[in-house]
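Input chain follows. Return structure tokens only.
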Amino acid sequence: MAFALRKRGPSTFERAADGSMTLMEHIRELRNRLFRASLAILVGFGFGIWLATPVRLLLSKPYCDLPQAIDPETGKCLFVQLGVADVFLLNLKIGLWVGLIIAAPVWLYQLWAFIAPGLHRHERRYAYVFTALAAPLFAAGAVLAFFVTTKGLEFLLNVSGDDISTTLEVTRYISFVTNLVLLFGVAFEFPLIVLMLNFVGLASAKRLLSWWRVAIFVFFAFSAVVTPTPDPFGMTALALCLSALYFAAVGVAFLNDRRRGRGQEVYAGIADDEVSPLDLSSEPVPTGARIEASDPIAAPEPVAAPAPIERRYDDMT
């Protein structure tokens, strides 16, 4: 039998005879790992609630550093709350984000432990490299988002003029900053996609380099859409950073192609519509030794003729 049946329930097949996991065991393992990840996020959420106010003040720093944000009477940076529970719900939202970040080592490990057994050794090695690069790239995008937010708010508040008093609503401002940080962080992960295309063999380094005009155009168009201000400074800063990361990824792709010997194949220098040269030189084949029969072949025995068939009168119809 291919499976061993236990008395846990009807039609429940446990571990197979070859040691592999069955569908029910995969579902149980997924349930257990989701429970552990949820428990870690819940613990991180508790710490996030405790850190919600300092994080909110940190996100408010790009606005509060501007002279237009200071109240002349109190000398403090003030926001407006339109709803009674807006700040409370905002602290819960910030606490959840902080909890996800604090519990990231746990739930990422649970996710990896569930996926890793189905991957090959080289696929796991690539996953380690990409994960180690993803976190610093996201952090660099978040820092650039803070820089763009500061310059953008300074530009927008100066445009409004001195005769207009501006006070921002706290939930809309925090959502604006967090969305900008998320967009910039995700945008900085684009070089990893370029490297993944090269490492899996879908695009060579030369082909990636030939796409540089399209890539730069896409970077500037994307930056023009996601940056909050109409001035060219924030857009140019994001587009130049993405372009530099793209060329750095292409450089790593060239090193990877050289290490793997790509482009040095037999037909590498031949175009798709070009006939490859054929080597028509022939080598002489020596004549093999004659094979002698060890025993003479016996003559076939004569086959006796079949006996005549006697027919009776009743055979005739």
